[in-house]
Amino acid sequence: MDKAQQDAMKKEAGIEAAKLVKNGMIVGLGTGSTVRFLVDELGRRVQEEGLQFTGVTTSRRTQEQAEGYGIKIVNIDDVDHIDVCIDGADEVDKNFNGIKGGGAALLWEKIVAINSNKIVWIVDASKLVDVIGKFPLPVEVIPFGAAHVIERLKERGYKPTLRLDAEGKPVRTDENNYVVDLHLERIDNPAALNEDLINMVGVVEDGLFLDMVNEVIVGDPNGPRTLINPNKA
């Protein structure tokens, strides 16, 4: 699948998901290339249809894009709930387990997600997999003592690499933490891995989003389709 096809499917999924947003809602807006199309469509609806809703964003990038369209953005601590959170995902398996954090926003994404009444992911068809893990699993790590955390991850056989930017400096999250990517190829027991990582001192959060999502809207060559998580129906 070439990039143009992939972008067309992402755009489809974004436009389809925008239909879920109604007047007066509080909406979690995710981060990433598919979400950009969602925000473009929501911006169009705000400007052309007079749609009014309040957004809570999972990154400063999304906040800037949304505010550029005149979408009202508030801090997560200024709302008591979020009606629906719409976000992308880097991989999704048939048990509705996902990997997120390719854009280094995993901590904010997870905080917004767990405070949402409904979670929807928008992906192109290439993100659907049998077993997650081919996509490197992001782990957000506090910079203090990060080398020791990486060493511990190495000892566990998790094949960690510190994520670097184009200048060779460590990538920083919106909380100013580092991102370590685990090159696991496949994750057969994501719950056990999540437990191990989250109990490691120095690890803030990992990119395993396990059985959290209600619906996945998939951009497909034949048009968007929605997968419903039976555990959340």
TrEMBL record:
Its EC number is 5.3.1.6. It comes from the Bacteria. The keyword DNA repair does not apply. It catalyses: aldehydo-D-ribose 5-phosphate = D-ribulose 5-phosphate. It comes from Bifidobacterium canis. Substrate binds at T31, G32, S33, T34, D87, G88, A89, D90, K100, G101, G102, G103, K127. SUPFAM superfamilies: D-ribose-5-phosphate isomerase (RpiA), lid domain (SSF75445), NagB/RpiA/CoA transferase-like (SSF100950). GO terms for biological process: D-ribose metabolic process; pentose-phosphate shunt, non-oxidative branch. GO terms for molecular function: ribose-5-phosphate isomerase activity. Homodimer. Belongs to the ribose 5-phosphate isomerase family. The active site is at E109 (proton acceptor). It is an enzyme of class 5 (isomerase). The keyword Electron transport does not apply. This is Ribose-5-phosphate isomerase A. Keywords: Isomerase.
